[in-house]
Amino acid sequence: MGLSLVSIGVLALFALIMAFKHFFDFKSPEVMYEAIAGYGLGGSSIALFGRVGGGIYTKAADVGADLSGKNDYGLDEDDYRNPACIADNVGDNVGDIAGMGADLFGSFAEATCAALVLAASSPDLKEGWCSLMYPVLISSTGIVVGLLTLLVQTAVYPVKDMPDVEKALKGILVISTVLMTPVVVALSKFCLPDEFSMGVGYEHVHWTYCAVSIMLGLWSGLIIGYVTEYYTSHSYQPVREISETQKQSAATGIIYGLALGYLSCIVPVICLGITILISHTLCGMFGVALGALGMLGTMTMGLTIDAYGPISDNAGGIAEMSGLPETVRGLTDCLDAAGNTTAAIGKGFAIGSAALVSLALFGAFTVRAKVEHVDILNPWVFTGLLLGAMMPYAFAAWTMKSVGTAANDMVKECLSQFPKIMGPEKMKPDYERCIRISTEASLREMLAPGSLVILSPLVAGLGFGKNACAGLLSGALVSSVQLAISMSNTGGAWDNSKKYISAGGLGKEFVKGSEAHKNSVTGDTVGDPLKDTSGPALNIVMKLTAIISLVFGSAIADFSNAEGGPFW
To answer: Residue 464's pLDDT is what?
Structure first.
């Protein structure tokens, strides 16, 4: 999946550049690449459907299947008699595969477009085709590195037993990062001039500065991945602590899970801060865009290991529905647990890269809207900052409530069917009705959060001026990063805590059917919308608000007064 998506993305972008270059007449390369920035807007718009709509679909089905089957009839969520089981399995593809793919494609498209716009503004870089295509080449070489990684992985991390699966999946990230590092240095050396200008204050940028910026993003991504794994894998202490507290009650498990999520923000935020500080100091906003491309340099492998979890989960569902022996389900559960951890790592990558991409797009917006500086003592900036910081909470609340509403409808539907399914009639479950409930809910419930993201920067910019819009973007970016990391890791930890207890991690007396397991199911059910709907969807809040502001930057500047306040 990872190799296919990045290949299609790079080919489509390159074809668009060539078409614009040969069939349209632009005044300058800068104008052409500003037009091509629409490619990123298209990617993020589709990601809104994939992430938000897909997240609501999958978790409505998952939570509905869990509650109706396990809590009322003692059925597994994938038991063929559970009417929601097919919707649940379809949801894994809609939310976890299509949603993550669309999200990371949006990040790749926006980061590349932002870097291309900034490269075209440099009088030195736009003279050479190779130096101008440098951002596209970073992603292109990532495909080759991904292929090499898959060849090397089998020799370095052979899988001989179940515990080796998780090591091999994590090893893929390490190998791809190590292989990508010399490629980045060589690419920078041969594609870029020895020294070039990136505008006022950055007249003497050396090619090594660009290589350093990319490597900071590349290695920060790996660190964020490993920190995410530490907080969400049941191989480590944090998740096992949650499992221990669930012996007593579900409430203590919830408290520990929330605390774990908040703690897990610290290292990723420090990594992002260091990457932004150094890359911006060396190359300005071009460095930040390159840092985002560096973090996405291993996207081929990041998506590959992210898709592992949903595939394993669906395999387990098929095994359950087909009535295969318990040993088969045991094997798929082990694979699924490893896949859950790698999916959490993938979400960490997605959130980190979204933050860097959003900052690069914000920098491009300030240039296009002619925002000289963002002063928080300015009342319009501070008002926008407060509203922007509030946006992720409103967005998360609406998406979580949407999952709850749709899951409630799903439970009602399942409970209306169960008496005839389990009774003497032995009625065949009506899977189609449950699929329809999830589909209709996902399309209906995404309207409010989607409108919030799309309209907020336009209302702030056109109604209250470019300073208010700059404040809104700053607040949304900073607030979304923290909330997205904590929600994703909290949900992932609760999920793997349940799997740890199910596998007998606390002892044979605490397996399925025990009070501890029931408490862990509660935590897992609460965590589902956090880790698979609201948390990952906050990436869209960061990116879509920024790129909409960039696309409408000139209009926002025209609707502002000389000081940057509202025109009225």
So the answer is: 93
Q: Which range has the worst mean pLDDT, 69-73, 269-273, 449-453? A: 69-73
More confident residue, 456 or 334: 456
φ/ψ of 181, rounded to 5, equals -60, -55
Q: Please check whether residue 471 is in contact with residue 374, taking contact to mean a CB–CB distance below 8 angstroms.
A: yes
What burial class does residue 2 get, using C-beta atoms within 10 Å of its C-beta: 0-12 exposed, 13-18 middle, 19+ buried? Answer: buried
Residues 461/468, Cβ–Cβ less than 8 Å: yes
Q: What gap in Å lies between CA 538 and CA 351, rounded to an integer?
A: 8
Query: What pLDDT, on the 0 to 100 scale, is given for residue 383?
Result: 94
Give the separation between CA 558 and CA 568, rounded to whole angstroms. Answer: 12
User: pTM to 2 decimals?
Assistant: 0.90
Q: Can you tell me the distance from the alpha carbon of 40 to that of 175, in angstroms, rounded to the nearest whole number?
A: 29
CA distances (Å), 191 to each of 20, 129, 211, in order?
A: 22, 9, 11
DSSP sequence for 429-492: P-HHHHHHHHHHHHHHHTHHHHHHHHHHHHHHHHHH-HHHHHHHHHHHHHHHHHHHHHHHHHHH
Of 280, 305, 270, 314, the closest CA to residue 90 belongs to 314
Question: Looking at residues 198-224, what average pLDDT do you find?
Answer: 91
Cα(430)–Cα(413) distance, rounded to whole angstroms?
A: 9
Distances (CA, A) of 88 to 28, 73, 93, 94, 411: 51, 17, 9, 10, 13
- Which residue from 510, 363, 409 is spatially nearest to 63, judged by alpha carbons? 409
Residue 506 near residue 244, CB atoms below 8 Å: yes
Residue 505 confidence class, pLDDT cut points 50, 70, 90: confident
How many Å apart are CA 75 and CA 391, to the nearest integer?
Answer: 39
Amino acid letter, residue 296? L
Highest mean pLDDT among 189-198, 257-266, 344-353, 526-535: 257-266
Are the CB atoms for 259 and 253 separated by under 8 Å? no
Residues in the chain: 568
CA atoms of 160 and 273, how far apart (whole Å)? 39
Q: What's the token pair of residue 524?
A: 């897992």
Q: What are the DSSP calls for 271-295, one per residue?
A: HHHHHHHHHHHHHTHHHHHHHHHHH
Q: What is the pLDDT of residue 391?
A: 95
Residue 553, pLDDT score: 87
CA distances from 121 to 1, 16, 59, 201, 253 (A): 34, 19, 44, 14, 53
pLDDT of 72 strictly over 70: no
How far apart CA 526 and CA 18 sit, in angstroms, is 48
User: How confident is the model at residue 70, as a pLDDT?
Assistant: 64
Helix (H) or strand (E) holding 299: helix 299-321
**End-to-end Cα spacing for the chain:** 51
Give kind and range of the element (H or E) at residue 346.
Answer: helix 326-368
- What is the residue-wise DSSP string for 349-376? HHHHHHHHHHHHHHHHHHHHTT-----T
Question: 119 with 132: CB under 8 angstroms?
Answer: yes
pLDDT at 106 over 90: no
